Amino acid sequence: MDFLLGLFSRITGNEELARLLFIGVVGISAVLAASAVILLMLGLQDPVQRRLALIKRGHSGSSAGQEAPGNLQLLLERVGQRFASTESAKTSVTQTLLTHAGYRSSSAVQMYWAVRLMLPLLLVGLTLLLLPMIPGVSLNIGLVLVLMAAGIGWLLPALYVGKRKEARQGRLRAAFPDALDLMVVCVESGLALPTTIERVAEEMSVSQVELAEELALVNAQIRAGISSTEALKQLAVRTGLEDVQGLVSLLAQSIRFGTSVADTLRIYADEFRDRRTQAAEEMGAKIGTKLIFPLIFCLWPSFFLVAIGPAMIGVFRAFGNM
Asked: Residue limits of the Type II secretion system protein GspF domain (predicted)?
């Protein structure tokens, strides 16, 4: 508390004004905290308001296998919805990013922006509480720490979603060759394309869960009346992989011109194996360049120390005896 009073005194230059400002900040913070707690504990627990919120977000309380969202999730969705409505130009880009990361919920964009808004405020509050415990912290250092906390809170959700997107696409890319081989076998055995997709999704539901879910969603869309080409195009959009986009283009041309789907899948499987071999060769060719910096900073100093160290010690001893 003394640290905060001193901080306000340095900013305003007047002790009385600093006290009034400190009391005002404490009062506003208490009112906001109490309002948040009341909204969380009472407002969202009202059965009518909760039911309306569930209807607006498209959630059916009687659907099996799904749990109703909690009060905190509904609160975050409301906060994010206010911000996302003003950022309509970025909504499609954010929704695409979240879809590639595996968040396909209708409220994923609102939740994302709510977390990006509330996390910096939370970290700034924690920083202000921890600053008095650090001895010898000046005003400039305190402001830098607060700004760093706000920046970390703003960038951390984006970095997490980006890493999750890369990891998910890596797993899908690794599982894609196995799915292609299974599809070739199923099509050559006489199964239609929707039945092939369904069978491959069932076979890969244990080893590759994410790709199995995507293929099962494609099969569900085809059963709902969407054409196979459109369902596969939506699969390419959801995954964001160039390999899947190439497969969709080939299958669309095969379906349009009436050529054999098995031949198309076999040709693309061979092409994908060649592309994967080229990617492996490219990664192997980069190893020599990547090893330059570890060799320079780790191995060569030790080599010079072992090779030249004894000679340098002998030279120093010879000049020391003179």
From this structure: 180-307
Q: Scan for tokens 């196995």, then name that residue.
A: 178
Helices (H) and strands (E) in the chain, counts: 15, 0
| Residue 318 buriedness (CB in 10 A; 0-12 / 13-18 / 19+) | exposed
Sign of CA dihedral 201, 208, 214, 237: negative
Instruction: Answer yes or no: is pLDDT of 6 > 90.
Output: no
- Interatomic CA distance for residues 173 and 23, integer angstroms: 57
Report how far Cα 206 is from the mean position of its chain's Cα atoms: 24
Q: Which amino acid does the sequence have at 65?
A: G
| % of the chain with per-residue pLDDT over 90 | 5
Was domain 168-282 assigned CATH 1.20.81? yes
pTM: 0.65
- Amino acid identity of residue 88, one-letter, is S
3-state SS, residue 24: helix
Boundaries of every domain in the chain: 2-50+70-165, 168-282
C-alpha 74/C-alpha 107 separation (Å) is 9
Q: 188-222 in b/e burial notation, b at 16+ Cβ within 10 A?
A: eeebebeebbbbbbebbeeebeebbebbbbbbebb
Reported as a pLDDT band with limits 50, 70 and 90, residue 12 is low
What is the spatial distance between Cα 293 and Cα 300, in angstroms, rounded to a whole number? Answer: 10
For the cut 70, the answer to whether the pLDDT of residue 159 exceeds it is: yes
Q: How confident is the model at residue 250 (pLDDT cuts 50, 70, 90)?
A: confident
Q: Which of 69-83, 92-106, 186-200, 270-284 has the lowest mean pLDDT?
A: 69-83
CB 68 within 8 A of CB 60: no
Rounded-to-integer distance, Cα 103 and Cα 221, Å: 18
